Amino acid sequence: MKRTIPILIASFVGFLLIFSKFIPPFEEWETKVSVWFDILAAFAFVLGGGNLLKNQIKKVHEQKPGWGFAAVTGIAFLATLVVGLFKVGVPPAFQTPEHVWSGEYMQEGSAFWWTYEYLYIPLAATMFATLAFYISSAAFRAFRAKNAEASLLLGTALIVLLGQTTFGSRLTEGLPESLSMLRIDSLKEMFLNVFNTFASRAIMIGIALGIVSTSLKVLLGVDQSYLGAD
Amino acid sequence: MRTILTISAMWLLLNATVSHAQAPRAAANLEVKDVDNDDGTRLRLAWELSPDDNGKRTGNPVGGYRLERAATPPEDPPEGAEAERILIRGEFREVKVIDPGVTSFVDEKLVASRQYRYRLTALGPNEELSPAVLSAAPIAPVVQWFNKPKFWFGVFLLIVCGSVVLFIELARSGWDLKIRKVAGLEAVEEAVGRATETGRDILFIPGIQDINDIQTVAGLIVLNRVAELTAEYDAGLKVPTTRSLVMTMAQETVEGAYLKAGRSDLYNPDDIYYLTDEQFGFVAGVTGTMVRDKPAACFYMGAFYAESLIFAETGNTVGAIQIAGTAQPSQLPFFIAACDYVLIGEEFFAASAYLSGEPKQLGSLKGQDVGKLIGGLLILVGSLALTGAEFVSRYGLENTAGRYFRTLGEWLKNSFLGG
What is the separation of C-alpha B160 from the centre of its chain, rounded to a whole number of angstroms? Predict the structure, then answer.
């Protein structure tokens, strides 16, 4: 029962949406179902928030390794929740000054806005910036010319990287017009637009067929493992 | 006196000429047609520009075109903010002021049970009005109950789905299916074994999208197989998630796997936990766990974006055996550079069937192959036809064969790619 009803609902809605793609008056249904999903997911956040808080309190209480981080996470979560829910520092809306809560929670100058602008954005940008170092270390490992395939990869990467720079383009601009296809710019374009495109299209076709097959297995209830035990 | 009168008369005449010149001449041939393959809410309008319209935004005697429509039965009067915005003149209400140089417009949000007439007036730079041009006869948008350009796409979809179902049934009836080995999936057991030997955990990340993304569902199906193995081997399994619904479903999935393996005593719901919906907050949380706990194996199965390389490189640094699977082509190179095994695109979706070994699941893989075969044939025929047409045209051999080639190529392109 625990599996049957969700599968019946998923099958009904899934097949209905597939057919709606071919019937113009029903094409909008997909968007409407998406909105319903968003509403459902918003309610489910209570589960996630509760789980987060429970785990952090448990870690701090049991003094597990890294409990200090758990304390910071828990405090940050509660502080953000409080300033957001109670609209700390938000003045009433201009049109309805008599209603204290009528202002926008993200209004400039509010505590929530300050948290987002001066804590969240810099922290997220810092994490994103670390990607530059990871790209360097991964490239260093991937481009070592260990065998013929790796050497080919190294050569291709070198040409594409050089082709993206002004210096790289200048290196071969002296080649005569008859050999223009050997200029780094042209080679880079060829690698990106020809080899890269046909390889990624082949992958995309495989992915599309994989999605069809997996979706069908889910809709027909052939694979129910993601639903847990009955 | 006569001189003064003459000058005054000339001045008046000149003034009259100038003010008359400012009202542009009218647009012409306003045609209204129903938009094909829609839900009966749109009409397409086309017209010829006013002869004064030079198509430019500046220095154009025509400042734009005011398009108005009248409906039978009449539309409800606008309310609220719309009431201030929409001008109503008699039975006509303004639809839009269209830029100069534009010769078509699609009017949307109409009602199929109403008949519509349109009126177009060219505007001078100071909103001087040209004579209006009216559409010939009232027209009602028509509801279409089938989107014709998608017909062949629908046929292709039916064949692929039919093949999947057919091969599932064949497999159920005992038909022998041969599936090639996938190195990444063969390594799953090795990864779980290593975690058991070293006494360290396994980290499984089912992507960063919600459960409405099929990649997340595919990731959870793989999680089920991995959890069965961890239950059998008595290895630790940690599943951080970015979405509450994914956490709930992952808990159900893992619990089901432990029950199936007969080791429900080992299941701990706290090992499947929610961190945050925010991408880089999640990255910070997960990489922190990796550095502190040093998992023996990391699985990345689902939809990933910029965080893919941060995860994979951190996992590499802590010496974990890493297996990734995603249908995000842009993230595949990062995983390939930093992971031990990668399930590329379709392999990721095939993983659950492969790991389960159930005939009915393996049948679905054969169905996919039929789709691939048909797709490959269509690509081959389409490419040959368009190449042949181009060849014939380039060497001046335009003939019936060349036209057939082009027609076939264009038909394939429009029917299967354009729908």
Answer: 20
